[in-house]
Structure prediction request, 387 residues.
Amino acid sequence: MNHSLYNPPKAPQVGSPFDRSREDGFLGVGSEMGIDATVASFHFPDPALFAGVPSDIACHWAQYFYTRPKNPTMSASLRSHIFALYNPFAKRSQFPAGIRFCANVYTGCEHACRYCYGRNYIPDPTKPREKKNFFQGAKDDLTELRALDLPPAPLHISNSTDAFQAILEKKHHHAFHIMELVAAYRRHFTMITFLTKNSPLISQPDYVALLDSLKPCQVEVSLAFAEEKGRQLYEPCAPSVGSRLEGVRRLREAGIPVSLRIDPLFPREPLPAEFWPTPRLADYGLEHTHTLDEIERLIRFASETGCQKIIVSALKVPVGRWACPDFKEAFRALYGAPWGGKPKTRSFAWRLPEAYIREHLIGEVRQIASRHVVGVTTCWENLVNTK
Ligand code: SF4
Prediction:
């Protein structure tokens, strides 16, 4: 056990963070258990992260993920890592994603999807760039994981960028090299999940060989549209629909587990009367780009190619600092109507009513998928169930 990062205090004091009446927000463990009491005394912003984790192991996780606060009354903050703590953008008490890693290989994304949630927190999201000291940072992280002897956890590559962006990857090969690096430290991870729109690239023979060496792993290919019209409108710089379908087919032929993300799901016609006063998208200034027929074609393709499952989530309209202003304005009337005119905002995004999402937007997709004998899971369920 490595306690060298911090100097533990001699003993817990009455009224200190070890006072059990204050256990919520602390690791809730004491020096009598033989662990690093200083780490145990930190206040963590999301204590449910360590729920069910043995206290000595929780302390090691905490040492890896968090900085040491200047004094015990302050909250610990996240350290900067390439293999960073997965951020579900919700407290783990509501979103039990547990401890998992996310490695965002680049910053920003050339695909420039107008609905990209990363626009809420990534400066200049459509200016893709490499990360400084990427390799050294990645190697340092893996060395530290090994030194702390952390138990294996799921790894996600990448959730706030596309790791397989054609221009950056051709120039820097960071996704390729991180796959090689992870292969050398494979035992530190459970399932490795790759999320990309660029199935044409990740299905190339060199990448497939690496995927093969990383099993158990899975590729989630994001393909919301079966028609170029919607793709060009909302994902202007992403690979074409046809090339993504072909990439999925190649991955499956190579025996790589693939899930198809029909994600995000855009509101469809007819808009139900219990939520909207009129049923046509044109009444809100929008085109009907995401028909059930189009979705059924994607589901049929997923079934025929042996994809593991379909992953879905409802369109959230980002309204944060770097959100696409045209996109936001285009969806204002549609997203406002169910709430009396003013869109409902949560975590910097406009939301649809949960009942509409459950019963119509996703419910209808589930019905179609059951006819094609393929499972549907929400993005939320998918993450929680990826172990
Ligand atoms: S591919 Fe993903 S990360 Fe890239 S712009 Fe689109 S939604 Fe954002």
